[in-house]
Amino acid sequence: MKENTTGIxxxxxxxxxxxxxxxxxxxxxxxxxxxxxxxxxxxxxxxxRDIIDHITFSHQDLIPGLEANGWKEDGNSGIYRNESxxxxxxxYEKGTRKVAFKVEFIDDFLKANNLHREVLGQAGSxxxxxxxxxxxxxxxxxVERHGTKSFSIEEQSEExxxxxxxxxxxxxxxxxxxxxxxEGLENTENLVHAxxxxxxxxxxxxxxxxxxxxxxxxxxxxxxxxxxxxxKFGMGWANQDHHTFDSSRQYFYRxxxxxxxxxxxxxxxxxxxxxxGWGSQILEQPVLQSVIFADIDxxxxxxxxxxxxxxxxxxxxxxxxxxxxxxxxxxxxxxxGLNHLECMFDAKRFNEIFARLxxxxxxxxxxxxxxxxxxxxxxxxxxxxxxxxxxxxxxHITEEEAEDFRKNGLLVLISKI
Length: 417
Description:
The protein is of the alpha+beta class. It has helices spanning 13-29, 31-44, 63-68, 106-112, 158-173, 181-199, 201-217, 221-231, 249-261, 321-329, 332-336, 347-356, 385-393, 399-408; strands at residues 2-3, 9-10, 52-57, 72-73, 79-81, 89-92, 97-102, 127-134, 138-145, 240-246, 265-271, 278-285, 290-297, 340-343, 366-367, 372-375, 379-381, 410-412, 415-416.
């Protein structure tokens, strides 16, 4: 899909057709790769197309087709990228065609599939690759990335690899619950700053998001179930699409500042409408190509202000969805964790699998041929009675709602696409 000058997203059908045609030719030349693609589609609803990292080619006659369908060369690098949607890079180089697909960790992938392959790149480094399936003219490779857009394996010092492992540990074990939210945000920002100084924003961002997913899974059964299923094939969360953080209005600019330190850039605004009363600042990390929806209570008259960086923005009364969620559970970037993780699946197959597992889905909130989005039915989290009492006393919830929250808690979600 592509955002044009009017801000409207549209399909890129020609580019999608071109990519799928290229993949079908590659599958024909490498049947073992097709078998694997069919396997993960059937068992875990992942389409290999959605996790293609890059494709190499050695015949220049492919270039006109690339350019006609939206791929543009980066200078004279031989690397062609299509920024109009979720498309892999094409790389012109000598040799047979390579199709590289993403995995979270190559060692886990090889172990899960009982494969023994030479791995290029040091353990713990930012880029690792291994040839998995080979045909006469085409081979399929697994790629593990951590905060780099490079396609070349480079030696990294033991010191920086150790630094990355250290900061991963710090992110995983950081304190999340504070009596003073401002203190918690300052602590988190300091940890992020230290990681960025040591290993750079891109690598630090990769480590931070991994820790956020792990914390979120510790609190969400549906997430754990799907992750376990994907781990059986060694994929990890290779099919992740975006992460969603909820924030109170008065702390929103601090959350955005932390994300920007990690290399995220503010993109467009999503507004759920005056009736819903909330919106999202969408951010993208250009190296990771990772997206965040940062949700906040929002009024219609605030759509034209830079609310993401306004330190004086005040809470809306009464709280809307994001504000109420944070008042109940805390800030997403602190004790509450992610609101949800959205991943790319074949929606029909995913629904069939989860129905078999007795995990229910909500009605989709977008249902188009090019974009189907639905949430699992949320899990109930208990809420601290003290927080409920404050919300009731301040008029954000009614007496009946307060009693319901005391008995049943509040819904939390996992998302899929």
